[in-house]
UniProtKB/TrEMBL annotation:
Protein name: Uncharacterized protein
Length: 102
């Protein structure tokens, strides 16, 4: 639950990892007309992680402990109880589902 009038929630950090492919080591015989290669083993991958500091938000996230959560998907209804951190888990869900906190 989020209470927009209580406290301040720290923004934290959001990171994204980008992958870049280097085809320069691939022989011409392995290259395709569209720029790809036939043998993927010659590609050299470089991974770059970029992080951004998010701003603080007015308000506070309050975990709801011991609350019943109902999940509905078409004709199926499942239930779960939240833990001390406000998290819960259910069985496998395919597609969209609606959640109700009781």
């Amino acid at each position: 639950m989020f209470d927009q009038h209580a406290g301040i929630t720290p923004g934290g950090e959001e990171c994204t990892t980008l992958a870049y492919a280097d085809y320069s080591e691939c022989p011409e015989s392995q290259r395709m007309p569209d720029g790809g290669v036939i043998d993927m083993d010659c590609i050299i991958w470089t991974y770059v992680t970029e992080c951004e500091t998010l701003p603080d938000t007015q308000g506070l996230v309050i975990p709801l402990d011991g609350v019943q959560v109902l999940m509905r998907q078409l004709f199926t209804v499942r239930q779960a109880i939240t833990d001390i951190n406000g998290y819960f888990s259910t069985d496998y869900v395919r597609g969209k589902a609606r959640y109700v906190v009781q």
